Amino acid sequence: MATLRISTERCKSCGYCILACPSKALRLSGQLNKEGYDYVANDESKCTKCGICYTVCPDNVFEILE
Amino acid sequence: MAVLKKTPTMVSIPNHFCPGCGHGILNRLIAEVIEEKGYEKKTIMTLGVGCSCNMNASWNGDKIQCAHGRGAATATGVKIARPDLLSIAYQGDGDAYVIGLAETLNAAYRNEPITVFVINNNNFAMTGGQMSWTTMPGQVTTTSVHGRDPALTGMPIRVPEFAATFPDVAYVARGSVHSAKEINRLRGYVKNAIEAQLNGEGYALVEVLCQCPTNWGMSVEKSIKWMEEEVAPYYTLGELKGRRK
Ligand SMILES: Cc1ncc(C[n+]2csc(CCOP(=O)(O)OP(=O)(O)O)c2C)c(N)n1
Ligand code: SF4
Ligand code: SF4
Ligand code: SF4
Ligand SMILES: [Mg+2]
Known about the structure:
heterodimer, A: alpha+beta, Alpha-Beta Plaits, 2 helices, B: alpha/beta, Rossmann fold, 7-stranded mixed β-sheet, 7 strands, globular, binds iron/sulfur cluster
């Protein structure tokens, strides 16, 4: 099963991935990273590992790994 | 179906662009194509002056910080000195189309075998959001506080359309990062622009419409909507000159 890795420390809370995710699997977590940004979290049960969040994220937060 | 995705090494260092900035997306696309071609250690990027200066810290590859507007001229020099390398200019609209218009057009006119990427975010972003020649009619900037008035300052400039009329140039396109679909299309343009150089076909230019949420004073949601509804209809997306082979 593929896994979606979220490098939360790179997230700048811009929200582009949340707008783009076709499965509505992403949201802001309400937690702050070291830079003070409210970083993104995903709902595993909704995520299809389609990679669209990787495509739109300007900060390379997402990777999809084997 | 899961699609495996890994961050390319040339963008492995966190960037210093603002939240939601389009620059970061284009950086990744260029990095993906360079990695695909195995050119990570055989590429020199000539950086324009603007928010591209942030890449001095984050672009994980060889680069030269150019004088303002001279990205294409410096890339020309790189290619003459080292024809074995991939020579890429990375510039903003203000850099490439305003202060550096002569250098940009002359490199295209001479059909220099280089690849030029121009990030068109409709303003001079790095200096605080002044009007550029690419600023849209009615667009508010710090130097067009009531909105750009084309009767006074002209209509936004379309340089790729002009460059595409030069008979020999290899490839010219305009893409955008306002949706996943457009980003995927843009990836194809980036690939063609790099392959054209690697195959010795000549000059290639790709302009990229990019959001600048900070200076536009818009959220990412508003930014991408504005790009789709206002910017892309004027700055037509697609290939303006396809490769010959
Ligand atoms: C000779 C010179 N003139 C003016 C400036 C000020 N300046 C710095 S960046 C810039 C424009 C940047 O705009 P653009 O190329 O569109 O890049 P962006 O920041 O929007 O990505 C200007 C006018 C300068 N650094 N040097
Ligand atoms: S991989 Fe696809 S479904 Fe999963 S969070 Fe990213 S965009 Fe949403
Ligand atoms: S697009 Fe990237 S930086 Fe922006 S909120 Fe999503 S994960 Fe964070
Ligand atoms: S000022 Fe605009 S172009 Fe520059 S880094 Fe911020 S969002 Fe990007
Ligand atoms: Mg600009």
